[in-house]
Amino acid sequence: MTRQIAFQYVGGKSGVLKYLFPDNQEAPSFNRYYEPFVGGGAAFFYLAQVRPTQAWISDTCPNVINTLIQIRDNHVALTNLCIDNVRKFHDRRAYWREVRDGYNDITDPLQKAAAFIFLQNFSLYSGRGAAILPAKNARMPRPFQSLSAALQNADISLTCFRSTPIRKNSLYYFDPPFFGQHHTYSTKFDLQDHYDLKLFCDKVNKKGSYFILSLGHHKVVQSLYDGYHLTRIARPPPTRSRGRGLGAMPTDGEVIVRNFKN
Ligand SMILES: C[S@@+](CC[C@H](N)C(=O)[O-])C[C@H]1O[C@@H](n2cnc3c(N)ncnc32)[C@H](O)[C@@H]1O
Questions:
Q1: Residue nearest to atom 8 of ligand 1 (CA)
Q2: Segments forming the whole domain that contains residue 91
Q3: What residues form DSSP beta bridges with 170?
Q4: In this structure, what CATH number is given to the domain that contains residue 48?
Q5: pLDDT tens per residue, range 171-199
Q6: By alpha-carbon position, which residue is closest to atom 25 of ligand 1?
Q7: Mean pLDDT, residues 4-26
Q8: What is the pLDDT at residue 244?
Q9: Which 3 state secondary structure label does DSSP give 216?
Q10: How far apart are CA 158 and CA 93, in angstroms?
Q11: How buried is 159 (Cβ within 10 angstroms: 0-12 exposed, 13-18 middle, 19+ buried)?
Q12: Which of 21, 78, 139, 241 has the lowest tally of Cβ within 10 angstroms?
């Protein structure tokens, strides 16, 4: 099975899918999937292949949401624009800087999505999330056709996790910014947000639905989610996140919290 994601993303979870959804895990039964911190959607696109179901995906980053909507609604034109961007970059590396510096002036949603994917996939980022250098190589993108098909079953919202509906018979996957990484994304995520997310998880649990949450290892996580099932990933495979040496994510491992046994 080929695993495709929408774009490379800081904190992207393609490297830890086997821990989030282990093969031997008895899959909880659910008929709706919610992912309120969707980013590049590694988990969403994986589950759409193995357990297709109606889904709600959301994020507070307008660029992320616009890009997912363009993949859903305009995948052929978007694929062509992305191929075009890579060709131009192969011709001359200065093209990367032109895209980066002109990014904020792009108003057309399709062009904006193509530029966003290009910068996400082929940039080195500072710890504060600024694209500072082009990547050495740029591979031709794969067509977005299958991702578009997966997104046809999804409600896509530009909204905070607090607005996610809490329903029965559902699986929720939460992948919030790590503790201490609240400057990395377009909106901050501080300690209060982490406390509120914990209360949100409690409500999902009370409703009888399932949740999976991934977070960077931190003693606050241990005490906050005491009473749920915690799995520590001692040495997660490096995600191809921002940095690759420049401002990379912390490597102290991750914790997966569940309200069911795996
Ligand atoms: C760790 S990333 C998610 C990565 C994603 N799982 C992937 O595989 O690409 C966290 C995401 O949470 C979003 N975010 C930050 N604050 C949020 C909030 N209050 N509600 C919803 N999303 C938020 C960020 O914009 C970012 O896209």
A1: 12
A2: 1-262
A3: 32
A4: 3.40.50.150
A5: 999 999 987 665 566 678 989 999 999 99
A6: 61
A7: 86
A8: 41
A9: strand
A10: 33
A11: middle
A12: 139
**Reduced 3-state DSSP string for 65-89:** HHHHHHHHHCHHHHHHHHHHHHHHH
Atom number, ligand 1, closest to the C-alpha of residue 162: 20
83 CA → ligand 1 middle, Å: 27
| Spatial distance between the Cα atoms of 137 and 139, rounded to a whole number of angstroms | 7
Measured from the CA of 189, which atom of ligand 1 is nearest? 16
pTM (2 decimals)?
Answer: 0.91
**CA-based nearest residue to 33, from 173, 174, 158, 164:** 173
Structure token digits, residue 257: 């919290």
Question: Between residues 26 and 249, which one has the greater pLDDT?
Answer: 26
Closest-CA residue to 260 (of 199, 205, 195)? 205
On whether the CB atoms of residues 34 and 173 are closer than 8 A, the answer is yes
| Residue 95, ligand 1, Cβ within 6 A | no
The total domain count for the chain is 1
At residue 230, the pLDDT reads 95
Burial grade of 130 (CB within 10 A; 0-12, 13-18, 19 or more)? exposed
From the CA of 10, how far away is ligand 1's center (Å)? 9
Instruction: Please say if the pLDDT value at position 166 is more than 70.
Output: yes
CA distance 110 to 129: 22
Is 175 a pocket residue for ligand 1 (Cβ < 6 Å)?
Answer: yes
Residue owning tokens 């996790």: 161
Residue with tokens 């890009």: 67
